[in-house]
């Protein structure tokens, strides 16, 4: 399974690395279990066409407004949006996982929800900050199910 992500504070990177670790553990028990191929996108990543389906994982960084009825502006994560927008990449995106801080109420995971809307893909799951072990295991199973359905 392929996961594209961006990490500003390190929380999303930690989540994806722990997701990879769980996948590796599962693969040791069952060689048919899916492993995670992760690709971190940053401002210096050249846009390129993906050739396999992927999931996107994005934190929420916004400024201005409340994000619902008086606007917002995505900050710091635009390079992932630009990467996904490149060529046919949107057609390969299987869904979006969002992260954020629940203290921001309605803005929690808003960037991921906006990506899902823009790219017409499902908002699959969310986690707060670095995610709990239970969240990571649950999201891994969800991704496995989605991946299997999409690639068979």
TrEMBL record:
Pfam families: Flavodoxin_NdrI (PF07972). Gene3D superfamilies: 3.40.50.360. GO terms for molecular function: FMN binding. InterPro entries: Flavoprotein-like_sf, RNR_NrdI. NCBIfam families: PRK02551.1. This is NrdI family ribonucleotide reduction protein.
């Amino acid at each position: 399974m392929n996961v594209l992500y961006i990490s500003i504070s390190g929380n999303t990177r930690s989540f994806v690395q722990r997701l990879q670790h769980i996948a590796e553990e599962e693969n040791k028990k069952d060689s048919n279990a899916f492993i995670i191929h992760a690709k971190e996108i940053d401002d210096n990543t050249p846009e390129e066409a993906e050739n396999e389906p992927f999931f996107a994982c994005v934190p929420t960084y916004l400024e201005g407004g409340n994000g619902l009825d008086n606007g917002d502006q995505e900050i710091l994560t635009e390079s992932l949006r630009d990467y996904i927008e490149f060529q046919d990449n949107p057609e390969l995106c299987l869904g979006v996982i969002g992260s954020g801080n629940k203290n921001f109420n309605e803005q929690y995971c808003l960037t991921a929800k906006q990506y899902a809307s823009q790219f017409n893909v499902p908002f699959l799951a969310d986690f707060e900050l670095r995610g709990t072990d239970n969240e990571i295991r649950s999201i891994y199973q969800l991704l496995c199910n989605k991946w299997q359905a999409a690639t068979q």
